[in-house]
Inverse folding.
């Protein structure tokens, strides 16, 4: 079969999904180690049966709702490519809002950043890449997630400025004052209805109690002991959680200083500072 025939077959097989053409193209590129430009330039070229069978195998995994990022082992985020596996949350465009918010607030400053629940490291690694004078600490309860974050940091060239620790939120962090604390914590309620694809991701990175607010309560209770007097906290939130998260942090002497919204107009990133 040719590239174009294989792509058409993949699109038909994945037609029950939301983005069959994109998914099929990414999987074909991955199976054949070809760029998008190569697929166009050589669309009528016959491909080796080995690559053909690899593509069929990948299509079956996607047909059964395994996320594309887990199949290919990577996911683009901001302007970088991150290794991912079933041990970490897949980076999403909603999280880019948090990174963009921080970068708009800070240029090339010498900062100390703490990333709570770092996962693949996509948040803090992207910030360190764009803020070359900045150093950071990323913590996660999963040592497998930290292994992936370490490889991502080294590949992207910020490993010398990023310390990674296995920690349940603040539990293993030496008391110190950070300029910025960032987090995309679990924020889905245990009884919420989510797609089968999302349920493939690590549950500890998704769910936070019945109402999805447990993580924010734990962070708010300790954050002021790790934040400089003029420091800021940037938190990703669920699209309906703005008021609840604001109340939690205000109860711990924080004030809401800013909001960043997604394309649908929902509050996706909240910025807090200590009341003075």
């Amino acid at each position: 079969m040719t590239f174009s025939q294989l792509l058409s077959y993949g699109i038909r097989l994945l037609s029950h999904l939301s983005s069959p053409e994109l998914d099929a193209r990414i999987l074909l590129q991955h199976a054949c180690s070809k760029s998008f430009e190569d697929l166009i330039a050589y669309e009528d070229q016959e491909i080796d049966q080995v690559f053909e069978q690899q593509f069929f195998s990948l299509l079956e995994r996607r047909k059964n709702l395994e996320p594309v990022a887990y199949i290919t082992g990577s996911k683009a985020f901001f302007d970088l490519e991150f290794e991912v596996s079933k041990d970490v949350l897949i980076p999403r465009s909603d999280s880019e809002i948090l990174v963009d918010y921080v970068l708009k607030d800070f240029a090339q400053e010498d900062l100390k950043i703490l990333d709570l629940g770092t996962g693949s490291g996509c948040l803090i690694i992207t910030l360190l890449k764009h803020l070359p004078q900045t150093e950071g600490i990323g913590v996660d309860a999963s040592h497998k997630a930290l292994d992936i974050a370490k490889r991502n940091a080294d590949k992207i060239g910020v490993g010398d400025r990023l310390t990674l620790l296995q920690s349940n939120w603040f539990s293993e962090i030496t008391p110190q004052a950070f300029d910025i604390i960032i987090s995309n914590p679990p924020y889905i309620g245990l009884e919420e209805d989510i797609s089968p694809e999302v349920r493939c991701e690590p549950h500890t990175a998704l769910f936070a109690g019945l109402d999805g607010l447990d993580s924010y309560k734990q962070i708010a209770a300790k954050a002021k002991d790790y934040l400089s007097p003029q420091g800021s906290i940037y938190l990703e939130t669920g699209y309906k959680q703005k008021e609840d998260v604001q109340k939690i942090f205000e109860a711990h002497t924080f004030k809401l200083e800013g909001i960043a919204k997604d394309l649908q107009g929902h509050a996706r990133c909240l910025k807090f500072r200590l009341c003075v």
Remarks:
- The chain has a mean pLDDT of 92.
- The two ends are 68 Å apart (CA to CA).
